[in-house]
Amino acid sequence: MADKPDQPGAKKSKGSLKTPLAILVLLGLEAGLIIGAMAFIGGEPETAGAADPALAELGDAEGNRITEILVLDGKLPNAKAGITYLYDTEIYVQVRQRHAEIVNSELEQFYNEIKAEISAIWRTADPPHFKEPKLENLTRKVYAMLDERFGADPETGEPILVKCVIVMGTGFRVDG
Predict the structure, then answer these.
(1) Percent helix, strand, coil in the chain (nearest 5)?
(2) Contacts (Cβ under 8 Å, ≥6 apart) of 16
(3) Residue 72, pLDDT score
């Protein structure tokens, strides 16, 4: 009975395999055409960085590579709204590698003084400053304080600090 062509199951299995197979072949061809067109139109992507590896090494040899240095990792308070909040805060400075030794030495020697100055900035900041998406106001104040402390490179005249980065969590209420 399985050899009878009148059975509907045998005829449907041949037809049902042809349709998905045809769809897969068409999808494959379409994907190939799209990828080929993108490669043809886009060309080769440009590489990021220096075009000449020797120039890139020269830039690194001069100490122009940017590095981040941790200035402070702590919990800083603010009670300006009448309620004390404690903010888990990390502050980094970005400097050129040739200035890293100077910055690390200064941070090690005057850590508590720098921490006190940053803590004063936190205590006097208005509550809306802590709600800014990128903490622009606090970053500007901390950068100005640190930039004044570190100054400029005596050889080139460029500022030692490139950027200040503040990573801060949500403030936690610590009083009643």
Answers:
(1) 50, 20, 25
(2) none
(3) 96
